[in-house]
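Task 17 of the worksheet. Students: predict the tertiary structure of the chain below and write it out as structure tokens. Keep your answer in the requested format; marks are given for formatting as well as content.
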Amino acid sequence: MTIAYIALVPLCLPSIYTGRSFDAARALQVLLMGACAAALVTSVRHTYLPRSALVLLGAVSISVLLAESWGMALREVAGWGGLIAVAWFTSRSIKAEQLQWATVAGVGLHAAVVLLLGISTYSIGMAVGREDLFIGYDNRRHLNHVQTVAIPLLALAGLTTKSALLRRLAWVSLSMSFSLLALSAGRATAISIFLGLAIAIVVSPDRASALTRFVLKGAATGLAIYLLAFVFLPILLGVKLEASTDLAASRLMGDQSRLFLWREAVDAWTKNPWFGVGPMHLAHQFNGKAAHPHNFPLQMLAEWGVIAASTALLWLVSAGRHLLARIRAAEGLTGNAGSALAMVWVAVIVDACFSGNLVLPVSQVWIAIAAGWTWKVSREENTNARPEARTGIILITTVVVLLLPLWLAATVAAEWPDLQEQQELVAEKFASERLHPRFWSHGWF
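Model answer:
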């Protein structure tokens, strides 16, 4: 199911669901998380968790209990438990070759369909809007969030595979994905990806040389594809490619209400600095702009509180230092894998400070798979792994975390038959020109 998700979602969503693609992607994500959790919970015998994990779980539990709607707060926690299950399952049960092929197929097929859709539309003399081309996504920014992690993973797949065919296909997929990035004017995504590449070069210049050539070659080819398919071809055929209003220069250079959303998050945090307003609860008080602040560190601080946020930050810093040490060490991550993984995580983290890539379902799954892939590579090459603990409290905690996605799957299954009607009611209650997705496409509760 994990491979099918990244290979076929969202390409197949328009054909299997008449509602919004976001909601279908979320439902399938919940199903995937539940399946991964079920596969793991039956095989849990022992695990390793740092003591800080218990601090984090304790702070999160208090945050849930203090939340105005503990059910919605628990839903958010269950979602993160499910993403951990996807990452864990990926690291344990999916081969690297399968991840490589699925990444190339998932990105390449979607990009090819979008390109062919645009070109075929021109050929019959029809004008087309940019937003209409990104099938399977309600908003082209949702595609950009996926590209932030998928483009670096394409580089990882192409540079680490033993198959010459897959290496060439990875480059083709990379080029087409860059062409869609240009078409969608994905500013934060482009900045995140190239900043990730720059950091990879700084960390290990020698090992990053192949990565640099692969990415820059793909970017140059992608720009050429964009110019040919979406600039020169429409001019040649006398067809206008209609730009949406938010591609105007004034919109591209503005903050798109981010400063307002960041202030809202800070104000929410001041109400309960230690434990936050509750997971997902920035989607509780309608602000007319967005149901999340487009800045994940601020979102976590406001919703989960300073104890949970600081503990998670320490984890992130520790993992980053570990990965950096492994990349630089002679016996560490060999070849191009280390540099590509550094690029992946810098891109994801930078984008998370300006977007909703850690909020939306498809990008969440891609990031979870990237985490599992990183875990797999690190574990396979780490001959000095720490022994696993067998304490009862850790085993119980692990089982509880894995059971939460199963509860979430049951909850979503109960909501699904009436979901479209409920979403219409939410849209009427919180009137706005734009969708405000959080858990569902209309994310307010």
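Marker's comment: The longest strand covers residues 128-129. The first helix runs from residue 2 to 8.
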